[in-house]
Amino acid sequence: MKTIYKLTATLVAMGEILCFCGAVPIGAAQSSTNNLPFPLIERFENFGAKDGLPTHKVHCVLRASDGKLWVGTYGGALFRDNGKFHLISTNDGLSHRMVMCMVEDKRTGDMWLGTMRGLNRYSAGRITTYTQTDSGLPNNVVYGLDIMDDTLWVATAAGLGALNLKTGSWSIYDQNNTVMHEPWVYSVTGAKDRVFVGVWGGGILEYEPASGIFKEHRDPDRDFHFDLAPDDGPVSDITSWVAWEDGVLWQATYFGMSRYDGSRWRTWQETKSPLPSNFVNFIWPHGRVAWVGTDCGLSTTDGNIWVNYRTDEHGDGIMEIARPGQPMETRKMTTALPNNFVLGIWVDDREAWLATSDGLAHAFLSPTQSATKVAVDQ
Amino acid sequence: MKRTALILVCLLATGAAGWGAYEEKEDTNTNYAAEPILKPDAPSVQKSEGDYPYYGNVPPDLLPYRNIEPYYRYWLTRLPFRGPGRDYPAPADLKSLKVGLLSPPPYGPESARGEMSKKGVMLAFEEANAARKAGELPFEVIEKADSPQWGSAANIAVEFSDNDVLAFIGTIDGNATHVALRVVLKTETFMVNCSDPDPSLTETQIPWLLRDFPDNRQQGYLLAHLIVKERELRKIVVLRGNSRPGRMGVRPFVDAVRRLGHPVLQEINFKDGDRRFDTQVAVIQQADPDAVVFWGNPTETGLAAAQLRAAGVKAAFFGFDRIVDPEFIKLAGPAGAEGVTAAYFFDPNKTDAAWTNFVARFQARYGLKPDIYAAYAYDGAKMLIAAIKKAGPNRYRIRDEMTSLDEYNGVTGYMRFDGRWDNIAPIVYAEYRGGKWSYFPEANLKRVKTAQN
């Protein structure tokens, strides 16, 4: 579970950005940028095989509380220290090469890595693995992780696992003890006193551990081949990712995306909104702004204003700004995403890291307005 | 040793639970849009535009919410794969072209069908290897059998990736296929399905799957049309398996007859392995239906048919493809089997050269006649072989070849693929009279025009 960012930290971060952003700030030069409710990306710095990444495909990325960057790829996990990537592979004890998701236990500094064959805890340089045959892990294919209080929540191909980090005991939530018809869990996110679970074909489950109550959020038309009406609930029952922050739940699907603020749903699909593609892989919420990874690039939105980033067919970076009732504003960037297929995102007030199907990108944000201020304002 | 034994015991215990643990659940979500009840002849107002305007080959009067133009419609065009990979070099020191085969558990309810499917796949690859030209790499099939644990197929799909397969084929059970499909999206390995009838499989928007096996949607629409429109039967009861395939498979039929103005009176379940159907028979007797529709495996449905007739139920019997099976006929007995009508895929007595030559080759290789599982598996494997030969050993280009298919002529007949790569070619229905099945093309069922109809 992410923490809510403090304004003071933002001010410090903004000062740092002003220091290290040497590139031409194309956003800052244009006054129209100033009325955006979130920062723009000014430039990308990309990393690939030449920098020590073992594969093209990068699944996930996060910056740990000690400042170290962690990267999950098709060929192992990496951490970046002093500007260099260090690979953690199956030779080091990682249970499988494909690292799909990561979460840090901020209290201990332990990093939890979900792979296609088991869960791994990286603690002080040592790896401990958990598989379905030697622990309570429901299935070896781990798609999502989150930590809330003393519990590590694990989304697997055959159920939701909950590891009590104090006692080491496991609980399994599946079709036998929840309202799930099938235990095809794809994602999990903590939300203060509850957990939201993205279920493949089952919409979103809302679970209150204190009461033990499960609640379903489903697509009201119950049909996959169309969406009958907008803003009526989850855009689809096939959930690819869920994320929560500041009272807002975001749902990614391959049919568009949805937002739920506790009372009202909103939905977005390509051609009906500025969302560039229905194929939404990942959402990272920061304040009340969503950073959205699709197969057509990266989007940032507060639900009303959208900024989309993509690399065009010539390899140039393109930024598109969509404001309600106004024509789309298109700008050419000096740098570009390494690839439009965005699989993972990590953002704070001063930078973003993007995992793509063809490398890793470091995005430098404009200092014009911070995401934190947006959250506070709203 | 002790630990291995413990794990085995645990696996067996979970396995047993995997088969037996399915329980029907009420939908606890109350936030749904009830479908309006329309007059059966109310026309559809929905526009069908785009490259693939025939989703699932649904007849216009069976479309859901057909009095409303939906806000957003999917699969009018095909979802592309926009990631990289097409220019990745072929692996060095390649000694064979590896293809995976995900088979059902060898000791489970789908094992016999899985065995026939495997025979069809292996025949296609044996023929391809026998016809190999000098310098061409041989195909190598890596078979892995599923286990009845939920999620086992996901682990196997990962193993296929670890084995560097270029693509894989499988499987029959909808649960297993679904979980494997989610993995292939991550491993980016194409999957060909030749035997899973679950309508929802291809509705998951994963552009790494093609299914050449007509699913339960096609059968449901045909049966609804036959029962309500052709034979004008009004009181309909469904007797189906209490399983995910039962719940998901019969849904298109149940929805279709409701849209035709004659919702099912009762949808009654049984469990796989049941042998007595006293409760179900009593309920059906009380409903006094015109038609009973069976959805389940041949043993259970055959026994149920016999017990219904013995109890004096005179309704016409209908079913999905699995009742076109000698086991159903044997257990239903003459009274239960006579006059039964089933949706089926194609006429296995057809005499076109592609089919008869395949039957002859299959019989020569295995000493038995192929069934539909062997035939669709053979066609699926042939499609994949052609794609690999054309694309070379690159998973992304193989995907592109497979997903560019609109039509295909195989030993099973003509195939037409929709916007989700589902085979929606017209199917047939079968009637059992006088000790044999006869097959008829679907009549007066308004479907999409294709080259073959």
Overall description:
The complex is a heterodimer of chains A (378) and B (453). Chain A has 378 residues and is mostly beta strands. Chain A has one domain (7-377): YVTN repeat-like/Quinoprotein amine dehydrogenase (Methylamine Dehydrogenase, Chain H), CATH 2.130.10.10. Chain A has two helices and 31 strands. In chain A, a hairpin with a 2-residue loop joins strand 8 (118-123) and strand 9 (126-130). Mean pLDDT of chain A is 89; it is low at 1-31 and 370-378. Chain B folds into two domains: 97-214 and 351-416, Response regulator (Rossmann fold, 3-Layer(aba) Sandwich), CATH 3.40.50; 217-344 and 428-441, Rossmann fold. Helices cover 38% and strands 15% of the residues of chain B. Chain B has twelve helices and 15 strands. In chain B, helix 2 (111-130) runs parallel beside helix 11 (372-391), helix 5 (216-230) packs parallel to helix 6 and helix 11 crosses helix 12. Chain B starts with a helix and ends in a 12-residue tail after the last strand. The chains are: A mainly beta (378), B alpha/beta (453). Chains A and B meet through strand 17 and strand 18 of A and helix 1, strand 1, helix 3 and helix 4 of B.
Net shape of chain B: globular
Helical residues, percent of chain B: 25-40%
Query: Architecture of chain A, CATH level 2?
Result: 7 Propeller
Determine Rg of chain B (CA atoms, Å). Answer: 22 Å
Q: How many helices of chain B does DSSP assign? A: 12
SSE topology string of chain B: HEEHEHEHEEHEHEHEHEHEHHHEEEE
Number of domains of chain A: 1
Q: Which sequence of strands runs across the widest sheet of chain A?
A: 23-24-25-26-27-28
* Distance N to C terminus of chain B: 62 Å
Which regions of chain B are unreliable across 5 or more consecutive residues at pLDDT < 50? Answer: 1-20
- Residue stretches of chain A low in confidence (pLDDT < 50, at least 5 long) are 1-31, 370-378
- Level-1 CATH class name of the largest domain in chain B: Alpha Beta
Strand neighbour order, sheet with most strands of chain B? 8-7-9-10-11-14-15
Number of helical stretches of at least 4 residues of chain A: 2
| Largest interface between protein chains, with number of residues from each side | A-B, 65 and 52 residues
CATH topology of the largest domain in chain B: Rossmann fold
